[in-house]
């Protein structure tokens, strides 16, 4: 299925669970069997299997696995996308912490970094904008749920339970909006590489996700 077909299966009052899970299971089985499926370790701590990219739209399978070491972001895990996100939870529990991020009244707590992604990784560039970070709210979604995050909404993804979960993620770019991350006030520009995930690591992640989905 392509992005339009997956999007149609997620929309409406009831997602097409069987087809969505079957599509994801097929991709994971290929990875578990050692086929050359593209995958990278995302700096925010999950494994991303990019499936489709067409201009400003794309499809990825995201897998969080307790079998791999956790990630330590160089700025913070609070960020916003330049694209609208629609995700379907295949298994586990995925949540979003939605902090208040506003122009500072008094002393700022963070500087905004623009994230410019390329084939080999991300350039994180400090901007002139500083903000103040507040507690905000939170939301959680279990298996079979569809959740949406509009472009420009600051959030931090949180995985419940043992830290294992997977989602089908659809993105649609909003022209003119940047990808941003909250970082330290005195942070400098730097680059973060996206390491390929393959071999035994990818097989382990895929097998764990298949087990989480019930085989």
How does this model look, in words?
The protein is an alpha+beta fold. The protein has one domain: Jelly Rolls. It is 18% helix and 44% strand. The protein is built from 3 helices and 13 strands; from the N terminus they run H-H-E-E-E-E-E-E-E-E-E-E-E-E-E-H. It has helices at 3-10, 17-32, 199-212; strands at 40-41, 47-54, 57-64, 79-80, 83-91, 94-102, 110-118, 121-141, 146-149, 156-159, 165-173, 179-183, 190-193. The strands form 2 sheets. Strands 4, 6, 7, 8, 10, 12 and 13 form a 7-stranded antiparallel beta sheet that branches. A hairpin with a 5-residue loop joins strand 1 (40-41) and strand 2. Helix 2 packs antiparallel against helix 3. The longest helix has 16 residues, at 17-32. It is globular, with a radius of gyration of 17 Å. It starts with a helix and ends with a helix. The model has no long low-confidence stretch (mean pLDDT 94).
Most strands sheet: 7 strands, antiparallel
What order do the helices and strands follow?
A: HHEEEEEEEEEEEEEH
Helix content: 10-25%
Query: What's the overall geometry?
Result: globular
On the 0 to 100 scale, the average pLDDT is 94
Number of domains: 1
Alpha-beta content class: alpha+beta
Shape-level CATH architecture = Sandwich
Tell me the number of helical segments per DSSP (H or I, 4 or more residues long).
3
How large is the share of residues in beta strands? 35-45%
State the total count of DSSP E strands.
13
Ends apart, CA distance between termini? 21 Å
| Radius of gyration (Å) | 17 Å
CATH superfamily: Jelly Rolls
Regions with pLDDT < 50 over 5+ consecutive residues?
none
| CATH hierarchy class name | Mainly Beta
What is the CATH topology classification name?
Answer: Jelly Rolls
């Amino acid at each position: 299925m392509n992005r339009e077909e997956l999007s149609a299966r997620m929309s409406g009052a009831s997602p097409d669970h069987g087809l969505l899970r079957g599509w994801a299971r097929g991709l994971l089985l290929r990875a578990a069997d050692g086929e050359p499926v593209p995958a990278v370790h995302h700096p925010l701590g999950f494994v991303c299997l990019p499936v489709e990219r067409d201009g400003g739209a794309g499809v990825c399978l995201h897998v969080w696995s307790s079998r791999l070491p956790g990630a330590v972001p160089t700025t913070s895990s609070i960020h916003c996308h330049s694209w609208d996100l629609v995700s379907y939870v295949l298994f586990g529990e995925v949540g979003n912490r939605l902090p208040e991020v506003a122009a500072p009244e008094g002393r700022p707590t963070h500087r905004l970094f623009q994230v410019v992604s390329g084939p080999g990784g991300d350039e994180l560039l400090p901007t002139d904008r500083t903000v103040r970070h507040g507690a905000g709210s939170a939301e959680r979604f279990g298996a079979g749920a569809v959740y949406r995050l509009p472009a420009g909404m600051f959030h931090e993804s949180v995985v419940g339970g043992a830290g294992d979960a997977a989602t089908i993620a659809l993105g649609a770019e909003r022209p003119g909006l940047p990808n941003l991350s909250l970082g330290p006030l005195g942070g400098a520009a730097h680059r973060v590489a996206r390491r390929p995930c393959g071999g035994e690591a990818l097989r382990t992640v895929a097998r764990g996700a298949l087990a989480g989905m019930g085989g």
